[in-house]
Write a structure and sequence with these properties.
2 domains, two-stranded antiparallel sheet
Length: 158
């Protein structure tokens, strides 16, 4: 096997594997953090040309997270929390990095909630939490399709 043309099991990128495992990749070093984000799940695993153990390990992890997210979404819709937290992150805002707590309004009905465009209101935070969780569930579903297709396409080395 030509070790310069190996591919990551997870992201499919061509990555060097001089030692027999895929090199670290997929991480970022955001400016000002003095740290880096996590590497791709396929880092330090055998290349896709050799095995599919990373794919096999990641699928049930995503399925578990998907189930927990579905349950959290149902709980959020059924029992909205008494308090939601809002953390500012905008660099241009003097209030950047501050945390605000928003109490659930009296008589709040999650079945009949209407959009509230005031930034940081309980309703806008509640709807954003629902939207973020739904988007995350769609992304997990897409990722599972990709990983299952990749696993099905895997062929043992000759």
């Amino acid at each position: 096997m030509d070790k310069t043309t190996t591919h990551c099991q997870i992201c499919g990128r061509p990555i060097m594997a001089r030692t027999g495992v895929i090199a670290h990749h997929g991480y970022l070093r955001p400016t000002g953090w003095h740290a880096q984000t996590r590497s791709c799940y396929g880092a330090r695993r055998v290349p896709y040309e050799v095995g599919h153990d990373a794919i096999d390990a990641l699928i049930p992890l995503i399925e578990g997270q998907q189930q927990r997210s579905r349950e959290a979404l149902e709980t959020l819709r059924r029992e909205p929390p008494a308090m939601l937290i809002f953390r500012t992150r905008d660099g241009w805002n003097r209030a950047a990095g501050q945390t605000y707590e928003r109490e659930r309004p009296e008589g709040f009905d999650p079945a009949n909630v209407r959009p509230d465009h005031r930034r940081g209101s309980y309703i806008s935070l509640y709807l954003a939490e629902i939207s973020d969780t739904e988007r995350s569930l769609r992304e997990m579903a897409d990722e599972l399709v990709y990983l299952r297709d990749r696993r099905a396409a895997w062929k043992a080395p000759a």
